[in-house]
């Protein structure tokens, strides 16, 4: 024992390194063990759904999974197959997995919509937008009716696998463990509780519309946030560094534009949920065609008199147009989106400190900002304006756009605890 202690003391650097390595290895193994326990518990819970007896005349529920393998820096496929896929298969669902890593699949998506009971999007914010956009590329008019009629009837599950998953904050409880977060989200799909989410239709002068469930950002905070990853070598200081160095380029940083908007709209009473038996395929096709043709006249925009529009000129460090999905209120009587126009008088110190807050909550609206509630708006940019919009964390060229609120058009599965929490908050 004395020789061992003497050797360890004489080679203290190697000893210290060895102890650190063993400690790290032990923690890593323990973490893997805990993850396996979480997976096992989730699979056992899913098995109870799979063991439920159904009549032989009732077909299995069909689930179409849109998986983005490129999400989470290429780790999404492995995360899905290890943590989510076993739960879905054990639950008794008839699962079809469609990878969203190639173009030209819009036609296939539309065909799948006719023969699915629920949609599951596995990825991040970009994957949600990509699925909607693929439908848009297939047929703009059909998408409008699809969003308003078909998507509002087909429930959507979201399995968070991306680096940015804004919907997670609304649908699931916070969790620091990625495995637990994924398994909880997958189990929430099986439990069947849903909440209606708003959608923003964002249309340029010549472009096809883009659909967003979180919102649009245009300004200096967004531009600096995109460059944070370039300063990875600064570790925890990278966010402050990105915002600090951006103040050297131009100051004061401001965006100028003209905004026209319409106020909130009254929310109609929600239709009671119906759960009829699934009709035959030919009946569903007939109903779909009838719905499409009957909805065509509705695509003509309603006449809005000039007096209804509010107009203002704005100069801002950042403009954001966001849905209310983050602060979901199931009982509110009006539908609107939040327009936040931040003051352009922010100091450099405030800009750097607030930039860190914006990375955590991109659509936060500081106290001195001008906040507007609107159902529709038109953003006019000065000629020659450069830069980019961030739409659901995806980058688009800045241009004049019309943003229209489509209230409660997507129905997403959520954790029952989150729905109960929303209802309690609404009553209070």
Automatic annotation (TrEMBL):
GO terms for biological process: ceramide biosynthetic process; glycerolipid metabolic process; sphingosine biosynthetic process. It is found in: Mitochondrion inner membrane; Mitochondrion intermembrane space. It is a peripheral membrane protein. Residues 58-206 form the DAGKc domain. Its cofactor is Mg(2+). Keywords: ATP-binding, Kinase, Lipid metabolism, Membrane, Mitochondrion, Mitochondrion inner membrane, Nucleotide-binding, Transferase. Pfam families: AGK_C, DAGK_cat. PROSITE patterns: DAGK. SUPFAM superfamilies: NAD kinase/diacylglycerol kinase-like. GO terms for molecular function: acylglycerol kinase activity; ATP binding; ATP-dependent diacylglycerol kinase activity; ceramide kinase activity. Its main location: mitochondrion. It comes from the Eukaryota. It is an enzyme of class 2 (transferase). This is Acylglycerol kinase, mitochondrial. It comes from Hemiprocne comata.
């Amino acid at each position: 024992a004395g020789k061992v202690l003497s050797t360890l003391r004489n080679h203290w650097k190697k000893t210290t390194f060895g102890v650190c390595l063993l400690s790290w290895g032990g923690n890593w193994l323990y973490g893997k063990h805990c993850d396996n326990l979480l997976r096992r518990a989730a699979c056992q819970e899913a098995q109870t759904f799979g063991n439920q007896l159904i009549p032989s005349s009732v077909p299995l529920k069909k689930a179409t999974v849109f998986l983005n393998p490129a999400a989470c820096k290429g780790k999404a496929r492995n995360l899905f197959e290890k943590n989510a896929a076993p739960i879905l298969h054990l639950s008794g669902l008839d699962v079809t997995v469609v990878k969203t890593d190639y173009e030209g699949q819009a036609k296939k998506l539309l065909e799948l919509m006719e023969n699915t009971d629920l949609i599951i999007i596995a990825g991040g914010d970009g994957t949600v937008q990509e699925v909607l956009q693929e439908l848009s590329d297939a047929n703009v008019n059909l998408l409008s009716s699809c969003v308003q009629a078909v998507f509002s009837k087909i429930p959507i599950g979201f399995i968070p696998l991306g680096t940015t998953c804004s919907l997670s904050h609304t649908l699931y409880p916070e969790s620091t463990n990625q495995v637990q977060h994924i398994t909880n989200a997958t189990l929430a799909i099986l439990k069947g509780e849903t909440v209606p989410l708003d959608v923003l239709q964002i249309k340029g002068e010549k472009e096809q519309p883009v659909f967003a469930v979180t919102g649009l950002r245009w300004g200096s905070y967004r531009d600096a946030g995109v460059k944070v990853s370039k300063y990875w070598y600064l570790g925890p200081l990278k966010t402050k560094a990105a915002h600090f160095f951006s103040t050297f380029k131009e100051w004061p940083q401001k965006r100028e534009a003209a905004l026209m908007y319409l106020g909130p709209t009254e929310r109609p009473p929600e239709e009671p949920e119906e759960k009829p038996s699934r009709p035959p395929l030919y009946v569903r096709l007939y109903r779909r065609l009838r719905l499409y043709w009957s909805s065509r006249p509705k695509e003509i925009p309603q006449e809005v008199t000039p007096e209804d529009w509010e107009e203002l000129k704005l100069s801002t460090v950042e403009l954001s147009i966001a849905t209310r999905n983050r602060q979901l209120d199931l009982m509110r009587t009006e539908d609107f989106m939040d327009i936040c126009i931040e003051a352009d008088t922010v100091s450099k110190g405030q800009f750097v400190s607030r930039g860190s807050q914006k990375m955590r909550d991109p659509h936060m609206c500081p106290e001195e900002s001008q906040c507007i509630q609107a159902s529709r708006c038109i953003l006019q940019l000065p000629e020659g304006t450069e830069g980019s919009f961030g739409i659901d964390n995806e980058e688009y060229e800045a241009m004049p756009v019309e943003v229209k609120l489509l209230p409660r058009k997507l129905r997403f599965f959520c954790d029952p605890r989150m729905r109960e929490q929303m209802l309690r908050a609404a009553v209070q």
